[in-house]
Amino acid sequence: MASKSLIVDNKKFDISYEIVNPTASKDIVFLHGWGSNKEIMKNSFGKYLNNFRHIYIDMPGFGKSSNSYDLTTNDYVKIVDEFLKLLNSSKDIIAGHSYGGKVSTLLNPKNLVLLSSAGILEEKPFDVKLKIAFAKIFNKLGLSSLTKSFRSSDVNQMSEQMYSTFKNVVNEDFSTHFSNFQNNALIFWGEKDTATSLSSGKKIASLIEKSTFISYDGDHYFFAHNAKDISERIENGIL
């Protein structure tokens, strides 16, 4: 594991990363999902795709990469893009899980791999809608401190900067971005995924013209149990 510092838009970031197969001539970059880290991606794919240089990154605010700013998805794209330039990455393949799928798409790699990607807005359960409505009312009444009682436990553990970032990115509709992606895409999904539904995966596949869609028996982290097959499909399906 290593770390590099960079400055993007006058903001300093220390990015934790790890490289596997450092002498390989082509790259595959792995971007984790919200609340996750590079270790989950490395533990799944680190022993496969031996002809590629693996680049595992903790995006700012996750894993061992700290963050002191309110960020947007476009900020994450800029940061990761500048970081990959520091590593002289050719962006042959970028694989993104969940939120990392949105960042990966905007990085416009030669080959895009989406693993249960976020980016399609889905109907929220009634109890979630109710919490959001009450939170908005309290904010308007100047009682913003009470809105914390409506946050889920994982959200409550976020710093204020990451909570602001979460609010910036959570409800983005990436349909247009998926439609505009012109390169090769491999889309993998868990059939029992409740975080990003199977129907969302099929919609993304319909939006990206040059895409292949494969689903597996599993949840949002289906790839942990199917990494070997996914890796073989990546090797056989890239341009």
TrEMBL record:
Pfam families assigned to the protein according to its UniProt record, in alphabetical order: Abhydrolase_1 (PF00561)
Domain of life: Bacteria
InterPro entries xrefs: AB_hydrolase_1 (IPR000073), AB_hydrolase_fold (IPR029058), AB_hydrolase_sf (IPR050266)
PANTHER family documented for this protein: AB HYDROLASE SUPERFAMILY PROTEIN YCLE (PTHR43798:SF31), MONOACYLGLYCEROL LIPASE (PTHR43798)
GO molecular-function terms, A-Z: hydrolase activity
GO cellular component, one term: membrane
Keywords: Hydrolase
Species this protein is from: Malaciobacter pacificus
Protein name: Alpha/beta hydrolase family protein
